[in-house]
Amino acid sequence: MNYRVFCVAVLLASAAWAQAPSTAPAFEVVSVKPHRLDDGQRALPQFLPGGRFVSRGIPLAFLISLAYGVGFQSPRLVGSPDWIRSPQGTYDIEATAAEGALPAGLSGKERAARERQMLQALLAGRFHLKVRRETRDLPLYAVVVGKGGPKLEKAKVTEQECAAKTGAIGAACHTIMGGRGRGLHGEAVTVGDIVEYVENWTDRPLIDRTGISGLFNVQTTGWIDLQPGPAAAPGAKAEDGSDMVDIPSLFTVFQRLGLKMEALKGPVEVFVIDHVEQPSAN
User: Fold this and answer.
1) More confident residue, 127 or 40
2) Distinct helix (H) and strand (E) counts, the chain
3) pLDDT tens-digit profile of 52-74?
4) Helices assigned H by DSSP within the chain
5) Quick check: is 125 in a domain?
C-alpha cells in the first residue's frame, strides 16, 4: 500500500490542530458508510475538482493520520484503538465542500491546510474524534544536511504551479510513490514531505532539521528494515527485484541525498487519540 498517495504523506508543513475551529472551511454534504468486506474495490483518499472528497475501503486510522499530517504508521500517532486499523474500521466516504471552501489561487501549502481542516471537521462530526497534541521527550532521528551539502535535484515545477493541480491532500506535486522495498519516487516534493513519508518505516520519530526549502525530484532505491530481524536468505529479492544483500540502509539512502540521520533524544510533538466512535448515521 502506498501511504503517501493516500497520504501524503505524508507532507507539507504540519497544519494540524487538535480540533478544527468552527470557522474553518468544511464539507457541506457528507456520506459515511461501513465498507462491505466482500467488496474488493478500494479508492485512495483524494480531493477531486470542485472540492469533492472520496475514500473507499480505507482504514479510519489512515484518514486520521492524513487529517493531522502524521504518518499512518508513525510512532507519533498514539492511543488508537485496534478497530480503526482493522477491516471492520474501513469506510466508504464521499463529501462535497461548501462553496468557497477551496478558492482558486491557493498555494499548495494553503490548500493542504484547508483540506486537512475539512477532514478534521468531518472526523470530529461523524466519528466524534478527539485528538490532542503533546510534546514528549523521546529518542528520535534528526535529518540534517550532510558534510558535503545536499545532493537534491530541483523539481521542474514551482509551488505556484502545484496550486493549480488537484488530487491527494497537498495537491499532486506533494506525492511520493514507493516505500521501504521500492524506494522513494516524487517529482516535486519537499524535504519535509520526504521526512513525513519515511517516518512510516522508522523505529523512532523522524524530524526535519535541514532548513532546506523548495521542491525537488527525488528518486531512490529501497532500503532494509530498521527493525532487527533475521538476515535475508541467499538469493532473496526485494520488491523492486534487487538482491536483498545489495539493499542499503535508510541511513545510506539519506546520505545519497546529501542528508544525514542523527540519533538524538529531544522534544517531539505527538498526536494522542483521546476518543473515537463508530460513525453516526448519514
Assistant:
1) 127
2) 6, 12
3) 899 999 999 999 999 998 888 88
4) 3-7, 60-68, 108-127, 159-162, 191-198, 250-256
5) yes
Number of domains into which the chain is organized: 1
The answer to whether residue 239 is domain-embedded is: yes
Which helix (H) or strand (E) element contains residue 20?
Answer: none
d(CA 210, CA 143): 6
- Bridge partners (DSSP) of residue 143 are 208, 261
**Structure confidence by residue, pLDDT tens digits, 173-184:** 888 989 888 899
Asked if the structure places residue 215 within a domain, the reply is yes
Report helix angle 108-127 to 60-68, nearest 10.
140
User: Going edge to edge, which strands form the sheet with 43-48?
Assistant: 27-34, 90-97, 52-59, 43-48
Range of the domain at 170: 3-275
Residue 209: Cβ-neighbour burial (10 angstroms; 0-12, 13-18, 19+): middle
For residue 134, give the C-alpha cell: 503533546
Task: Give me the residues paired with residue 32 across strands.
Answer: 93
280 domain residue, yes or no: no
In the block, cell 457541506 appears at 28
Helices (H), 199-275: 250-256
* DSSP label at residue 210: S
What does the alpha-carbon distance between residue 190 and residue 158 come to, in Å, rounded to a whole number?
Answer: 11
Q: pLDDT digits over 203-248, tens only?
A: 899 999 999 999 999 999 999 887 555 555 655 565 556 665 568 9
